[in-house]
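Researcher: Structure prediction, please.
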Amino acid sequence: MYLSRLSLTNFRTFSRLDLDIPREILLLVGGNAQGKTTLLEAIYFLSTFTSFHASSDRQLINFTLPENELTVGRIVGDFSRQDGVHKLEVRLIREPNGVNGGTRFRKEVLLDGVKRKINQVVGKFNAVIFLPQMARIIEEGPSERRRYLDMVISQVSPRYVQHLSDYNGTLSQRNALLKQLAERGGDPEQLAVWDGMLARHGAYIMKERIQAIREIEEEAKRIHYGLTDGKEVLRLDYQPSYDPLAARNGQLALPVSTVPDRSGFELKQIEEGMLDALKKLQREEIARGVTTIGPHRDELRFLSNQVDLGDYGSRGQGRTALLALKLAEVNWLKKRTGEWPVLLLDEIMSELDTRRRSDLLASLSECDQAILTSTDISMFEKGFITTHSHWRVEGGMIQPIGDD
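Model: Predicted structure follows.
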């Protein structure tokens, strides 16, 4: 899979950009705040329809445009995959709502000129992105790791996207009812319908996460072993807030140094177990006014030689684990979809020593397309520079170096 053309309109700092992209490893060189990361953000948006930077999609619209007028930001990508050539368009629409000068925001997605629901389009174009700030996946709270899982799995499973959306909607309704029962009283049996829906959608999400984490770990462990010269073993420890192992065995959770295997559980087993757990927690959850178990409270930990990197790992260990995770993600997507994803690497060379830079550049040859950014072209070997295209990005303008 590769992207052949990218067009941006009113996206972030780009008022207008039309770019033909070569099917190769491409290097974008330029100073900070010139538009390099924004370009990668736009490409990645075509794969997940969400931003890794913005807290709200409406922030992606060019901020210099008037707030109270109809404004449309566009990302349009032409890409090729085994089943042919396609065009994917995302429209970010901000329009007046007629109420006290306010505005409303909506997002539209078109595939080959036909408007589609997001869950019908996600996975058509795949990309993997690495940014230095993604260290927060390891270093910060569980929500960052859940978000990472959701963005990765969504690229290969439209059903996961739908179940996740339905789960979040059900969770919101159930929490509202729990709060109402806590404040005003009422019949707890009202929770039964929401419990059933939450368990059904939650079980599907858990089953997908169990499988994905197991498969990605297999790839990441191999890559990480090479990056650390065989000195460290990486494990991914999935810690679901409802644990079917604990429900089945009636035992305390295993120590963090031991990563349990939950892959043997059938979907129905997880659903029935979660439903039973919700019933047992009913009185406590009414008192608290919130749902205390489910995928919205899952955790994922990264262990190197049984040491939790989030709590005790060094900065270098965290960066190496994250690089292994991202390269594993590339291989995993290839196995699941049959297509190489577009690889997007932002300022990664500054995070690596000389040997690991060489190892990384050598590994890129397997991909159909990779786009790297850097503020310092000297970090790349001379042979790499002479054999691959490198473009300058400055003030939102992009130009091949040498054609000034």
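Model: Residues 42 and 75 are 7 Å apart (CA to CA).
Researcher: Thanks, that helps.
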